[in-house]
User: What shape does this take?
Amino acid sequence: MLSEKLELALNEQITFEFYSSYTYLAMAAFCESSDLSGFANFFRVQAKEELDHATKLYDYVFQKGGTVILGEIAKPKEKYDSMLDVFETGLNHEREVTKRFYNLADIASEEREHATMSFLRWFIDEQVEEEDNFHSILKKVRRCEGNPAALYLLDDELAARVYTPLNNTNN
Ligand SMILES: [Fe+2]
Ligand SMILES: [Fe+2]
Assistant: This one.
């Protein structure tokens, strides 16, 4: 069973994962409009992964006998100055997500809710990868500044990203 506080915090995170998905879909649209379809592909895949995160949390709340109440999804930022701006915003967004999972883990730990602490471990580990992913592409984008040809090479690289569904029952 989940405490009211933990159930509410997990529910808020479900909505935030949808917001993450929405944010990345808006970034995909910006990239598409900028004729960078490889970058757009990267964000389309990212948006799908965020939906998987929401579903993983959703399933867990029910598994623990709780209830899911979905919140409002805020309008995502739609205009960016540059691809550098996109990736700086993306990295900051992932850092914010990490903070949220740390906060969730703090609540679970205070309540000695060991099952939830163990469940949250997956997300905390995943965030290391998420931040690293954005940070490494951000560094590459920085190197492409003032060099559109290099940006198009990076666009080709990002076109290769493939979505792999998360197996929500076994992960
Ligand atoms: Fe996520
Ligand atoms: Fe993420």
User: Anything to note?
Assistant: The chain has one domain: 4-158. The chain has a mean pLDDT of 96.
